[in-house]
Amino acid sequence: MQLSFATLASLLAASSLVSAVPLQRRGTKMMTSQTRLNAAGAVYFITNEPDENMVIAASINSDGTLNLDRAVSTGGRGSHGLSDPLGPDALFSQGSIKASAKGQVLATVNPGSNTVSLFSIDPDTPTNIQPIGGPVSSEGEFPMSLAFNSDGTRLCVLNGGTVNGVNCYTVDKKLGLVAMPNTLRSLNLNQTTPATGPAGSTSHIIFSEDGKQLLASVKGVPPNPGMIAVWDVADDGSLSADFNAVAPPEGGLLPFSMTIIPGKNAVLSTDPGVGFDVFDFTSGNASTAVKIDGQNATCWSSFSKKTGNFYLTDIGTDIVTEVKVDDNLKAEIVNQYQQVKSGDTIDNDIATIGDNDYLYILAPAAQTVEVMSLDAPGQAKRVQSLHLSGPTKAAGVTINANNLQGMTAFVRE
Hints:
By secondary structure, the protein is mainly beta. It has helices at 2-14, 389-395, and strands at residues 28-30, 41-46, 54-60, 66-73, 97-100, 105-110, 115-121, 129-131, 136-137, 143-148, 154-160, 164-172, 176-179, 185-186, 202-207, 213-218, 227-232, 244-246, 258-261, 266-271, 275-280, 288-291, 298-303, 310-314, 319-325, 331-338, 348-353, 356-363, 368-374, 380-387, 405-411. The strands form 7 sheets. The chain has a 5-stranded antiparallel β-sheet with strand order 1-4-3-2-31, with helices on one face. Strands 5, 6, 7, 8 and 9 form a 5-stranded antiparallel β-sheet that branches. Strands 10, 11, 12, 13 and 14 form a 5-stranded antiparallel β-sheet that branches. The chain is globular and about 55 Å long.
């Protein structure tokens, strides 16, 4: 059923022309009567609904603000992990949807179907996404995070359910995702489907800065710390048979998101048990756990090229924490920014528009996307709260605060 739906949607989309008043194809629900042409970029997140998962796309204006545009079916289903109480951050993860600017493609997980979907991105109208092939098996259960390599020619998925681990694909612009040999690797975690968490669940998958390693973060179960699993990546894209388990630095417990520290063979990993951890993969000597006073659950992070700083979101306090990491991997908190209270701020991403960087934060309980302008180090300011409930309801798109997930930005290169 999924293959036939996706194929039909592709055929309809291929015959459609982008116009000021776009033709609505099957599987697409428009939230505007006029798509913004030549937008600076777009952001995407998922509804993650159990009956039908959809990608919500919003165009980015030249001033960094957003316009809701459309919702597009992934051809798969969403799911919510097992937690008590039930709340936002259904997948316990970062990276459930990812865009590649170089590849001009977008991928998303379908955790209720155990599949991954791939879309092309029209660089001139980036909210115009069209499926490539049909959803493909994640080769595991409860897929919850994705990573493209640097040029968008390969994609890897992190599965967090009973059958957990990683699997990778070649990105084919005609066929879609083609499973790569010698990339299906297990984490051997004692988990359930849907995953039980947040403690003990998988979190995030990324490539190292040089593309020679694949990293997956796993939260600990207190008092036992989690780890970052590291596989070597061969020239043909195959993965080492076993992973190297890197423990958090002393005081670290629940490695969640991972954001590359440029030029340092290191990552900043959010850690809701303390604040954040710095993992030094060169020697380990500079690895540290850093406390954020008053934090509740700091779980998501992004890096700004303009300010040179990291931006971390906390679902419990609705605070964005700005962090600087120096050349010696010493980290310090630069500033903090209160967001909409009780918004449950989760996934975030950063886009460079013109000469400025903008931070996009999904706040599912408030049903908004918060937009911050990163004017200079320590000088971020909120410029928009994009409200989701009215436009999605009018378009017949179901959203639920407990299910909304993901945030990824695309800016044409």
